[in-house]
Amino acid sequence: MIRPLSPTDVARRVARDIPDGSYVNLGIGLPTLVADVVGPDKEIVYHSENGILGMGPAPSPGEEDPELINAGKQPVTLLPGGSFFHHTDAFVMMRGGHLDVSVLGAFQVSETGDLANWATDEAALPPAVGGAMDLAVGAKRVLVMTTHTTRDGRPKLLPRCTYPLTAAAVVDRVYTDLAVLDLCPEGFVVREVAPGVTPEGLQAVTGARLTFAPDLTVVHPD
Amino acid sequence: MIRPLSPTDVARRVARDIPDGSYVNLGIGLPTLVADVVGPDKEIVYHSENGILGMGPAPSPGEEDPELINAGKQPVTLLPGGSFFHHTDAFVMMRGGHLDVSVLGAFQVSETGDLANWATDEAALPPAVGGAMDLAVGAKRVLVMTTHTTRDGRPKLLPRCTYPLTAAAVVDRVYTDLAVLDLCPEGFVVREVAPGVTPEGLQAVTGARLTFAPDLTVVHPD
Amino acid sequence: MIDKRVATLAEAVADVADGATVLVGGFGNSGVPVELVHALLEQGARDLTVVTNNAGSGETDIAALIRERRVRRIICSYPRSAGSVWFEQFWRAGEIELELVPQGTLSERMRAAGAGLGGFFTPTGADSLLADGKEVRVLDGRRQVFERPLPADVALIKADRADRWGNLVYRTAARNFGPTMATAAALTVVQVREFVELGGLDPEAVVTPGIFVDRVVQVAR
Amino acid sequence: MIDKRVATLAEAVADVADGATVLVGGFGNSGVPVELVHALLEQGARDLTVVTNNAGSGETDIAALIRERRVRRIICSYPRSAGSVWFEQFWRAGEIELELVPQGTLSERMRAAGAGLGGFFTPTGADSLLADGKEVRVLDGRRQVFERPLPADVALIKADRADRWGNLVYRTAARNFGPTMATAAALTVVQVREFVELGGLDPEAVVTPGIFVDRVVQVAR
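YS: structure for the whole thing
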């Protein structure tokens, strides 16, 4: 029986790949879960593109500062050692390759590491990009955290993205509710699968052709 | 009898053209004299390209701070309201057109407003440019303060510069020991002359053809 | 004597012209110069190009400017939010133009304007449709798109404290676009919480030196 | 746990390789990381490209590096000063290469490297012989020259105080090239006067956030 990972379990698995001492930007949505599950043994400096390094957890109710918000516009706190800077400098950090890890959501990822996470083909909504493209091109490692398929069961890991690209050939690793996959010269290489997931089963819900690592294991979120 | 203006008198004449409240950069050498003669009725904010706004006068002997220096590497002070910033921002101010006035020295100025003030044709010394080119292209008004001729009597105001250019078509006004000249579409237009200087006499020591303003006056430094 | 303090919000925005390009600071609801935008609304300038990160939300500030048909064109990175109903309605009706710019490029284009540069190449967006029609060049082994400076007539920003020279410090993440916008506009107008004496700001900690600021008005919180 | 403090100057520069490009902060004698440069001299790396505003003076720091034949090439804006005798002697003998860059362009090229940009157009020097061989384009009605980023292997800079995350504040005009150089090098090494506890620097007044810093060593004044 397939037991897909919960979003929190995927976040735990991502957290394991973030080394102590890293400078990390967590994209809006699923990626923000990562901060909640990183263990206290690691000191991670979280970056927010609106001008914060050293972001701490959400404030207690009633303690919110309406101007101290993260990129998702939620109230946050600042840790000792944190700092504020202006937007242009925040993007120097991103685009300039100073972040160790960027964790992003995705609509689609291609087997060449292309990322589509800012626009669908829906023309009824105005387009909006925010910092997605800067995050995708700049970090030393770009990790994608997403469900393996769309809500209606269509694959998100594809030979080529059909949605507008955010950036080409930037994704290093993808974490889904069903698997952990690396982007390699040969395309998607599956390193780990969720409990009960078979290679055939995973391939059936994936648009791109998968390669399975010889040492394929079952995901251990912790 | 010709009475050339002293460097201090030239500085006084320049100072008269600097409006109250201006942001001003004074180049190394002669231009630094200007700060000494600006009257106390004007509040001028002096900029130094090494990262200072609101520079004050030289400190009293014994009060020097070896790290608080101006672009000429002389010890200075900071006025209340002054601020420090990094070099890149200092040049944003210069190149970005934020300075009201830049006062520069010159080896040569051409009748089209070209400025040569960083290199001669002497090959024995290594070339050095510093911030000269940034100052010349960026300020809202570029004023040149120089002797009318070289020490050996050769003209500095020329049809075309023979020394390497700092920047083309940037000079607004030239102040020499003999005259005040504007750069106009027709070339050098003489506005004021030092006591005893005749049009013919001035033309004789000038390389470019001069036009004399109909309301030509004698320089009053104060 | 330099004194950039003005007494009223109305005075601060009195001469914004029809057709002006106006930079408006803020990210989400942090650092938005709400009172200055409302003063601009009252002042009546129209046919504006507004440069800002978001496209307003609810019924205040930028959303109100849009609702009152003062904005011909908006240049921003993220016009969509829970409350961006006025923008969305006008956009769907074809009554407002949108230039979508990646957030870092938006900030960097304003910086280029303030820094007197002619443009820059950036990898951001170079492989996306936001590079359509723009020059793309391979530099340092990656595709990069040429982006041009984004200067403006007016910047409206919010800071925390100022002195009469217009030196500014900000508060937490409300700093966001303020320091860059201040450099990019011909006229920079700032609302602050508090005025301090000249010399009352630490010269090592001034974030926006007064050279970039034209007018400052106090708005009590 | 992040702790960028190192105990000795020798440790701070231990792995600078022969052939490295090294940014050295300072303007005149203000903000020069003298002790770090001396540690580099002792460490022995040679064939260096040194990027700095001036070319050293007297017998210390950069002048000493030149005298000891460690510098193959210098990229700077103003190599000539009263005491720049070693540089001048080597330059005349053709034993050191000089790339002369206008001061603002030098700073901006390092910023471009730190900011991940592919280059920029600037009016500075566009009409001068320093634009020879470079692309010149008319933008916004003026001639502008295309300048490329200037990245480096190592930056040696001087700050005033730091915490263990590598956050930095500077002192007066000693700040100069430090904040920009810190962004442009793969390895940024800083000498400071004093360490403070984490949280001991005002988050509103940090000038160089620790993300740009790799090692910090204390040098008593």
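YS: worth flagging: Chain A has five helices and 13 strands.
IM: good catch. Also Chain A touches chain D through 27 residues (CB under 8 Å).
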